[in-house]
UniProtKB/TrEMBL annotation:
Domain of life: Eukaryota
Protein name: DUF538 domain-containing protein
Keyword Mitochondrion: no
Protein's organism: Gossypium raimondii
Gene3D superfamilies the UniProt entry points to: At5g01610-like
Amino acid sequence: MGCFFICSPKFLFFYLLIVQSFVSETISFEDNKPTAYEVLMDFNFPAGLLPAGVTGYDLDPITGEFSAFLNGTCTFTLQRTYKLRYKNTIRGYISNGKLARLEGISVKFLFFWVNVVEVSRNGDELEFSVGIAGAGFPMDSFEDSPQCECKLICNDQKVRKIREIPFVSA
């Protein structure tokens, strides 16, 4: 009687059915994982705080440690004044209305890039802190995720002509 019950075709069929059901549930759970943009909204931030093209993220629900991943460095201009740069990995700690100990986001100030260390929500404003200084922006400035600026490669095609400079002779 040693292997009869465990080795029977009926047992094997039910075993495979149960395993397949478990694997299907695991896969569907992974498919239902919220996006990085949805995670931001769960913590009362607008989705546009992250640029378009986030490829994935990690979130530790206990510590609030949060990382978002991009295909590369992303630069864009905010309100036609501030130039922001996101590295390919952005890290920090997220809680309700606060992103602290940020790494991977910087803003151009005059001729220098300065690290953004914290973003907090204050009513309908987002306050960006670089440590000794900060700036506030209306939340509606971040309704849509900004597109990264195109440098030499746009839509997977190299830009052939950047600018034509006419030849001037004297």
